[in-house]
Design goal:
Elements lengths: L15 H7 L3 H8 L8 H8 L2 E5 L2 H6 L8 E8 L2 E7 L4 H17 L7 E7 L12 H22 L2 H10 L5 H8 L3 H10 L1
Parallel strand pairs: 1-3
Antiparallel strand pairs: 2-3, 2-4
The chain binds zinc ion.
Zinc ion (ZN) binds next to helix 5, strand 4 and helix 6.
Length: 197
């Protein structure tokens, strides 16, 4: 018999950190945790919010999941009961790590639920979930919808609107590559941000 105070798996266990993350939008995150410097330092923001993160070698997990040789895990966000964390690949450069951290943080804010027992969001270099071919079209659609949502969140976090407008008004003939270099983000993220303006 269970003693009082012992919580079984399956009991309502709230992850307080997820609850906190769920209340954050990119704008609110910037307002509360950003030092107003460009490039936006996502590691400082995560530390401010209180979400654990670390660099990780995914090669063993990639083998275990039988991930295609041309594909790779770039990062993941996981929740397990009241535990929440983000891992990013040790194989990627600083700008990509910044983007992957922002993308995984977005999943924490948008797609992880405080009551959920266990949840993993994985970011692959092919942008597809490792098991997507086993899923129905609707599930696949939901996955890509979530990925796009997370990327839009990351774009708004990594490219705050005012610094972008200031930059564009001073540099009218910039190519997308220059904007990406200025904000230390991939080009696709600049496109997403500009489309959202
Ligand atoms: Zn994702």
């Amino acid at each position: 018999m269970l003693k009082f105070g012992v919580r079984r798996k399956g009991d309502l266990r709230m992850c307080e950190m997820i609850k906190k993350a769920n209340s954050l939008t990119p704008e609110k995150t910037l307002e509360e945790y950003w030092d107003k410097k460009i490039p936006v330092n996502v590691k400082n923001i995560l530390a401010g919010v209180g979400i654990r993160f670390r660099k990780n070698d995914f090669s063993e997990l990639e083998r275990a999941l039988e991930i295609d040789k041309d594909d790779a895990i770039l990062g993941l966000a996981f929740s397990d009961g009241d535990d929440l964390g983000i891992l990013f690949s040790s194989q990627i450069d600083r700008d990509s790590a910044n983007y992957v951290l922002a993308h995984e943080f977005a999943h924490c804010c948008l797609h992880l639920a405080p009551h959920e027992q266990f949840h993993v969001e994985m970011k692959m270099s092919s942008d597809l979930y490792s098991d997507s071919h086993n899923k129905t079209i609707r599930e696949r659609h939901n996955n890509s919808h979530k990925e796009l949502q997370a990327d839009k969140f990351a774009a708004n976090l990594l490219i705050p609107t005012k610094p972008l407008i200031d930059y564009l008004s001073k540099n009218k003939e910039q190519r997308i590559e220059d904007v990406a270099r200025h904000f230390h983000v991939p080009k696709e993220i600049v496109r997403l941000k500009i489309m959202s303006l």
